[in-house]
Write a structure and sequence with these properties.
single chain; alpha+beta; outer membrane lipoprotein receptor (LolB), chain A; eleven-stranded antiparallel sheet; two-stranded antiparallel ribbon
Length: 278
């Protein structure tokens, strides 16, 4: 059994201090610092994005919302998730909601545990007993688990920006009431894999080989601390049944930095070792 418990509260203290500073600045600051930051955002967007993953590691933890959209056969399918993530330990827990089945019946939510090199799923269906977990080695997946689990691992989503080759600063906006800077660009999965952390290197390398193209268009929104608040990637698959590719849009929203994260990985006896139905 592998068991890990992590709780980080420093991010919440830092966030409160930052909020206080912003309030004071709104009353009496000239705004010169913000103008300077905006100038760097416009002049060095790629450099700013390359540092975003590191800012999340220093932030520690956050709550997460995810969505994954794919249009197929004239129907748009969306999978949603919600949970918490520890960027230092690369571990998290998500509850993933699938679309209704063809009869209009709600499916049971899937519980997913994200860990370095592995994805654990409960209520997976496909012949897996309800009380058992499925363990998947993410490096063996053709997409590195950027889309297989119905949610992109937040750490991999952030480190994918290490492959940003070109980016444009589009100005200030807000995400969930938080002031952010909006960037748009394209990342190269091969470059991201080369520069990624040890935990994500194999994942991104697998994705670079498995997708229709290693080029991944993105939109990302960073707060004034340089942390990702929202990132949206467009992944392309080869359509095995007809010519062309299928686009999958993955969105990750990060908030409540410093949230408590508890991840307990399943015991070996609780992991299903039988055949999974197609």
């Amino acid at each position: 059994m592998v068991e890990r418990h992590r709780t980080r509260k420093d991010g919440a203290v830092a966030l409160a201090a930052a909020a206080t500073g912003l309030l004071l600045c709104a009353v009496g600051c000239s705004g010169g610092g913000a103008a300077s930051d905006d100038a760097r955002a416009a002049d060095e967007p790629v450099g700013v994005l390359h540092g975003a993953a590191g800012k999340l590691v220093r932030a520690g933890t956050s709550k997460v919302r995810t969505s994954m959209e794919m249009a197929t056969g004239g129907t748009r399918v969306t999978i949603r998730g919600e949970g918490v993530y520890d960027f230092g330990g690369r571990e998290g827990r998500l509850k993933v909601l699938l679309p209704q089945d063809p009869a209009g019946v709600d499916r049971r939510p899937i519980t997913e545990l994200l860990a370095p090199g592995a994805l654990y799923m409960k209520n997976r269906g496909a012949g897996v007993p309800a009380d058992k977990w499925v363990r998947v080695d993410t490096a063996t997946l053709s997409d590195g688990n950027l889309v297989t689990g119905g949610a992109t691992d937040p750490s991999a989503a952030a480190e994918l920006l290490l492959g940003a080759q070109r980016a444009t600063y589009l100005g200030r906006t807000s995400v969930a009431g938080i002031a952010v800077r909006h960037y748009r660009g394209t990342a190269d999965l091969t470059v991201a894999a080369r520069d990624a952390s040890r935990h994500n290197r194999a994942v991104l390398r697998a994705a670079a080989k498995g997708f229709a193209t290693a080029a991944v268009p993105f939109d990302v929104y960073l707060d004034d601390q340089g942390r990702i608040r929202k990132v949206r990637h467009r992944f392309s698959f080869v359509n095995g049944q007809r010519q062309g590719t299928v686009a999958v849009f993955s969105t990750t929203l990060l908030y409540d930095f410093g949230a408590a994260v508890h991840v307990r990985l399943p015991k070996a006896r609780d992991i299903y070792a039988g055949r999974i139905a197609e």
